[in-house]
Amino acid sequence: MSILKRIFGIGSSEAKTEPVAELEHEGYRITAAPIPAEGQFRIAGTIEKISGGEGRRHDFVRADLLPSRDGAVDLTFRKAKQIIKEQGDRMFG
Questions:
Q1: Whole-model pTM over 0.70
Q2: What are phi and psi of 47, to 5 degrees?
Q3: CATH number at residue 35
Q4: How far is it, in rounded angstroms, from Cα 32 to Cα 12?
Q5: Cβ 84 vs Cβ 47: under 8 Å
Q6: Where are the beta strands (DSSP E) in 3-76?
Q7: Where are the alpha helices (DSSP H) in 18-68?
Q8: Whole domain around residue 50: which residue ranges?
Q9: Is residue 58 a contact partner of residue 81, using CB atoms and an 8 Å limit?
Q10: Tens digits of per-residue pLDDT, 46-57?
């Protein structure tokens, strides 16, 4: 198993999660989907934007772990807003 899979739990049953909350911010839709990990919750979500009839999506996972799902959702929204501010549409590659 690769180091990233071990760090982020990708591919394990622990990594399965459902979207918890959505937020619209500056024309982007942010979806928080914290990943249960080690009895806590890892920051994870998506940023989406539809322009010109084409949808674009950026998935992100952070190493941050928080003890509560609500705390992880709040931090997911803050991290996503930071990504939007710093990268804008460049995040879509």
A1: yes
A2: -125, 125
A3: 3.30.160
A4: 19
A5: yes
A6: 21-25, 28-32, 35-37, 40-51, 54-66
A7: none
A8: 3-92
A9: no
A10: 999 987 778 899
